[in-house]
Here is the input.
Amino acid sequence: MGSLKTILCATLLTTGLLAPQARAVDGADAQLHGFATCAGRLSALMEHQWMFDGAASEETEHSRALVIDILDAMMPADRGRDVLSWRIEAKVAHSALLTRASFAQEPRDRIWAARTALRLTEDCQRFLLG
Here is the structure.
């Protein structure tokens, strides 16, 4: 039951239905939180691609580096712990989603997880384009 709870929480965090309780994000932190979340998601995607699509990992690594550069430039010195926490939470949640997309027993579940992961990483790419 513990792993089911972990997967459920990761899925809810990834889809935005569950927010981390310890650190509520207000309007002033929304952009910082967005970039931190994308850094985590892109880290998870890059590591997933190392196993399944090595060539794609290079492009993801480049996008991730850009997001981290922007994040480092905008991060106040006293927010490092929060930003790192957001990055880790997003990476863990996105990694669980990618694992589900690759290994879930139910085809519908795999398709849902793959589409959700793709949508979330496309949202991150829009940060770089917009």
Q: What stands out?
A: The two ends are 41 Å apart (CA to CA). The chain is about 80% helix and 0% strand. Confidence is low (pLDDT under 50) at residues 1-6, 17-22. The longest helix spans residues 80-103.
